[in-house]
Amino acid sequence: MKKLLAMMCIAASLTVNAKDNKEMHVYLCFGQSNMEGNAKIEDVDRENIDARYKMMAAVDFPKMGRKMGKIYPAVPPLCRENTGLTPVDYFGRTMVENLPENVSICVINVAIGGCDIKAFMKDSIAAYCTKCPDWMVGMLKEYDNNPYKRLVDMAKIAQKQGGVIKGILLHQGETNTGQEEWLGMVKSVYDDLMKDLNLNPDNVPLLAGEVVNSDRGGTCAAHNPIVNRLPEVIKNSYAISSSGCPENFDQLHFTAEGYRMLGRRYAVKMLELQGIKAKDLSNPRANNLVSPVMHMMNFYFDRAQNKMVFDNTKARLRSATFNVFAPNAQKVEFSSQFTDGLQPMVKNSNGIWSITLNAPKSDIYPYNFVVDGVSISDPANMNVFPNENFKASLFEVPDNEMLYTVRDVPHGRVTYMNYKSEELGVYRPLIVYTPAEYEQNPDKKYPVFYLVSGTTDTEETWFKVGRFNTILDNLIADGKAVPMIVVLPYGNMLHGTPNPATMEAVAMYEQFARVMTGEIMPFVEQNFRTLNDRENRAIAGFSRGGGQSQFTAFSNPDKFANMASYSAYLIPEAMDKCFANLMTPEAMQKNFKVLWYGVGKDDFLYQNVKTHRDYFDAKGIKYQYKETEGGHTWMNARDYLAETLQLFFK
After folding, report:
1. Which of 75, 135, 147 is nearest to 107 (CA)?
2. Which of 74, 343, 372, 404 is most buried by a 10 A CB count?
3. How far apart are CA 564 and CA 624, in angstroms?
4. In sequence order, what are the beta bridge partners of 532?
5. Structural domains for the chain
6. Beta-bridge mates of residue 375
7. Is the pTM of this model over 0.70?
8. What pLDDT is stored for residue 314 in this prediction?
9. Terminal CA-to-CA distance of the chain, rounded, Å?
10. Distances (CA, A) of 168 to 109, 207, 209
């Protein structure tokens, strides 16, 4: 019995000792503005903080009642009284979530916004303080002009209270971007900390976070390859990726969510080094690759006030970052209609290639990546360019004044359909737009505009790239266009596309005209309420579609009184052979209310269009003409469409 009681006492003693065996793990944190915290602290950041997560104040916090050298619950701010959210906040939270209950975490954060790494070097700090910018003077003064010493002094206090320094967190480099010597400077600081605090480098890892990443358009992202080389000079050091962490508008600092993500990554690595696998912290949405990343600026120039003003409701696009994940690629380039030639992209530590470009003027531009010589669309962008040959994505530079922007106006309906083509022996796709008022006016009939796709384009291209429906919605709402039905046929006749500068193209044009008048028009007129006279029909197209539209209209003046050609032409030989009786001023004026041509000055078809116009001019045929800057682009096609929509059926 006595033996049993003794054993129970020993067991009870062991239990008590286990409960009392509490540990305080201390982490030293230093750096510049992203370490001190730049994002606004939100309510969620002050809630549900485990009591085991502590902070030691490295300065006095008068308003919060915190005293330098004292330990408090780790409620932000953690650096100084007026600093914001920092990666340290969610580093500590994540640590205590994954460590045994007898372990507490205490962080000591000494950071100065905008500081050089020299601010933490024992031999450089005195000289640095005499030359620092005026706005930094007050921050340095809070650390008695020696932030390194303050960090060491606080660490020694923690050690005296039984704290064990388990690691060091660094986030600094923006001020030293691109400086190779930064590596040696960081090593100097680390070595001094090991010596002054009597630490074993094998037991105290240094975790250095990347600055705002290239995949988020980081202004200083060029420093990240240097950060990733830190293990070359400090054996027990590790780079923490910032890939995908959201950035602030300045592209120098992270958002609150960015700090949370980065802080968790610091913790996951520190736990891994301690042999602990962190709980699943993945956020599928946060980890998804974003492309393009839109960098908006809330400042704009107010002409009335003659100055730059801030307005959240008038944010404009300043730049954009394009990303593609290709970890095994040797070379990735960017191609678009707003850049000259192929632009080199840079690869980050996660295998993501990026490029950040200034925003071009407001419009919608196609772009693609060239991965080791192979052109691909942007896998992370849902806005695709429908085309038979090339695979591109769409980049929209927003502007509420542009007609392609969806506005708060009545919107028409776009319907995907199929019709049976006896001519081609297949079912063919067709897209039909009906104006917003169509359903509310069951007895009303509408004019019809047939809008034809270009070479290698599909019937969707005028919808997804041309945004014809949005442009027309806005013009109708403004009273600038007549409510109309718009039909988008697929212009590929399935027998190849002959060179339009040769007579071989005539057979393709003739077949398209037969399909249009014999199959598409009857199908549309049977299924929709249409006005079926020539004055209430129009036809137009871009590139090949422009040639098809001209040939169809000139072949059927009894069916079409309105024709527009966007960057397209017919050769004089085809005109003479097929439309000799029509090619007089009197006949053309009698048959066509709208006869319109448009082309860009740099369009590769510019000279062909000029030859077509010269043919008309020589015969005295009148037509409307618009010449724009740029080339054979959908930016110009949308411009031409918007203008001609305002001419039809009036």
Report:
1. 75
2. 74
3. 9
4. none
5. 21-287 (3.40.50.1110), 293-396 (2.60.40.10), 413-645 (3.40.50.1820)
6. 370
7. yes
8. 61
9. 111
10. 10, 6, 11
Picking from 38, 172, 171, the residue whose alpha carbon sits closest to that of residue 117 is 172
Q: Check the CA dihedral 192-194-196-197 and report its sign.
A: positive
Q: Annotated catalytic residue: which of 13, 144, 191, 250? A: 250
Extract long-range pairs of 376-379: CB within 8 Å, 24+ residues apart.
376/324, 378/291, 378/292, 378/322, 378/324, 379/289, 379/324, 379/325
Question: For the segment 372-393, what is each residue's pLDDT rounded down to a tens digit?
Answer: 999 999 999 999 999 998 889 9
CB atoms within 10 A of CB 310: 10
Does residue 241 contact residue 327 with C-beta atoms inside 8 Å?
no
pLDDT single digits (tens) 278-337: 876 655 444 568 999 999 876 555 666 666 565 655 667 889 999 999 999 999 999 999
CA pair distance 630, 361, nearest whole angstrom: 13
The pLDDT value given to residue 17: 42
Task: Report in angstroms the alpha-carbon separations of 76 from 113, 208, 253.
Answer: 17, 21, 18
d(CA 566, CA 633): 10
CA distance 563 to 545: 12
Which entry of 253, 295, 612, 632 is annotated as an active-site residue? Answer: 253
Q: How far apart are CA 245 and CA 90, in angstroms?
A: 14
Q: What's the one-letter identity of residue 59?
A: V
Output the six-digit token pair for 113: 């916004």
Closest-CA residue to 560 (of 589, 539, 545): 539
Model confidence at 56: pLDDT above 50: yes
Alpha carbon 348 to chain centroid distance? 17
The reply to whether 250 belongs to the active site is yes
Q: How many CB atoms lie within 10 A of CB 20?
A: 8
**C-alpha to C-alpha distance for 638 and 630, rounded to whole angstroms:** 13
The length of the chain, given as a count of residues: 650
Tokens standing for 503?
């007579």
Q: How far apart are CA 582 and CA 590, in angstroms?
A: 10
CA-CA distance, 216 to 252, in Å (whole number)? 10
Whether the Cβ atoms of residue 432 and residue 488 lie closer than 8 Å to each other: yes
Please report where in the chains the tokens 């080791």 appear, as a residue.
372
Where does residue 572 rank: exposed (0-12), middle (13-18), buried (19+ CB within 10 A)?
middle
Indicate the pairing of strand 206-209 with strand 237-240.
parallel
Mean pLDDT of the 14-40 span: 82
> Where does residue 313 rank: exposed (0-12), middle (13-18), buried (19+ CB within 10 A)?
exposed
Task: Work out whether the CA dihedral 52, 55, 60, 61 comes out positive or negative.
Answer: negative
